[in-house]
Amino acid sequence: SGDLTESNKLSNQYTEMEILVVPCQEIQIKIDYPISRKKKRYTNLADAEPIVLMSVLSSLHAGYFRISLSLCSQALLWKTMVHLHSDLPSMAFHLLWYLALATHVSLCFLYAFKCIFFFDLVKEEFSHYIGVNYLYAPSISCLLLLQSAPLLEPHSVLYQTLFWLFAAPILTLDTKLYGQWFTTEKRFLSIMANPASQVSVIANLVAARGAAEMGWRECALCLFSLGMVHYLVIFVTLYQRLPGGNNFPTTLRPVFFLFFAAPATGSLAWNHISGTFDTVAKMLFFLSLFIFVSLVCRPTLLKKSIKRFNVAWWAYSFPITFLALDSVQYAEEVKHHVASALMFIFCSISVLIFLGVMLLTAANSKRLLRRDPVLWSATGPKTDKKSLSANANW
């Protein structure tokens, strides 16, 4: 019994010691300060930059290359005007060309990073009936930069090498896009055709103009025929109001200006192929002029698309610039006061619209980086209104 009492006393002492030790252990385990310090660490701007960059990359799509398209086409217009009218300041052309180069290179780098980190989104964009057309835009911008380059001659080896480097993606996409209209059973042109489909036509015609500048007449004729035949098919398909045109988001209605951009680009290409602004070039110019007037006379068509700023507004700029380039060539050929008046009107409209959209973009720069609804939700045209609203960012 004595041993039991002693053991009980010892156990009671050990229990009391454990009770005394436990609070010390709890105090040592509790580490509130390092955790709060860790939370503060992620609120620093330097640590938030990768998160912001990933957000920008995920929201970026090929439709943003409309910006570089407008800049590059405007640089080509200024080069043409400076070449024909020596009294215009050449410094403005050089500044505009380098601005276009910097903008296009920046967009290309961002899109290349998107291909690395968000390849699934790029694959969905490649499969989308609207998004796939704007994959031509980087090559078109590169070709326009090449054709408006201030210190590069068309007959140089560097010019020819860069031409093939920029034209190769266009031919690859032609094989994919035009080939599926012939061979696949689901992606019919009558279902997939939309106003953005004309970007592929513009790409072939810009490449034809570049080949003609180098003196490659047969190559230019090949690209010109490929572009104009498909423009005729797409134009007739959209003119008949088949299902593809009815699935086009309201926000993207500025892309309707591509209807006259394609024949205007074709007129420029044929002018360089034939060496003169002949009857074919004039017919294409008059066609683009008629379509432009038809669109301008229906302002209600674009009323809903201008309520809130969108990157699609850049689709107003480069079609007008191509039409202004046509008017310049037409005025040089005809030598008439009406042609000179058309040149002055369209060049003025082109510059004013370009400056206006650029200022609006600068004023709404935060909206461009915002995570808006994008096209990833669908890979083909649907009649559901919810799917169309998800497509509005293009």
From TrEMBL:
InterPro entries referenced in this protein's UniProt entry, alphabetically: SLAC/SLAH, SLAC1/Mae1/Ssu1/TehA, Voltage-dep_anion_channel_sf
Subcellular location: Cell membrane
Ranges that cross the membrane: 96-122, 134-152, 214-239, 251-271, 283-301, 313-331, 337-361
UniProt keyword annotations, A-Z: Cell membrane, Ion transport, Membrane, Transmembrane, Transmembrane helix, Transport
Topology in the lipid bilayer: Multi-pass membrane protein
Assigned protein family: Belongs to the SLAC1 S-type anion channel family.
Name of this chain's protein: S-type anion channel SLAH1
Biological source species: Brassica napus
